[in-house]
Amino acid sequence: QVQLVESGGGLAQAGGSLRLSCAVSGRSFTTLIMGWFRQAPGKQRELVGVIRSDGSTHYVDAVKGRFTISRDNAQMAMFLQMNSLKPEDTAIYYCQASTNTPPVRVYWGQGTQVTVSS
Fold it and tell me: What pLDDT sits at residue 27?
């Protein structure tokens, strides 16, 4: 069983920065594709970006150039560096892990609140 624990959320002003962390346990980290999702009030959960075990990344257009996902395979952790924050980035941010071989299993963290004030 994979456990994911997010940390680093909080309050930031527009234009500011925050760094989220996701600590992983319970499975070899290099067998996991990791991702960040977010859910704003009244909206569906949406993808922010993913990072594969080789370090390759994909971001949605709304965060390209502002957010950076990284992973440390030795620490079994993933990070989300958020710069140039906007009020519309306000959401609960979730860490997700999915296995990279069948049967694919998906795991979620408990989420961490990010609030950006204007």
Answer: 86
Which stretches of the chain score pLDDT less than 50? none
Residue 92: its H or E element: strand 91-99
Q: How many residues does the chain have?
A: 118
**pLDDT per residue as tens digits for the range 47-66:** 999 999 999 999 999 999 99
pLDDT at 102: 87
97-102, Cβ contacts within 8 angstroms, sequence gap of 24 or more? 97/2, 97/4, 97/24, 97/27, 97/32, 97/33, 97/34, 97/35, 98/32, 98/33, 98/35, 99/27, 99/31, 99/32, 99/33, 100/31, 100/32, 100/33, 100/52, 100/53, 101/31
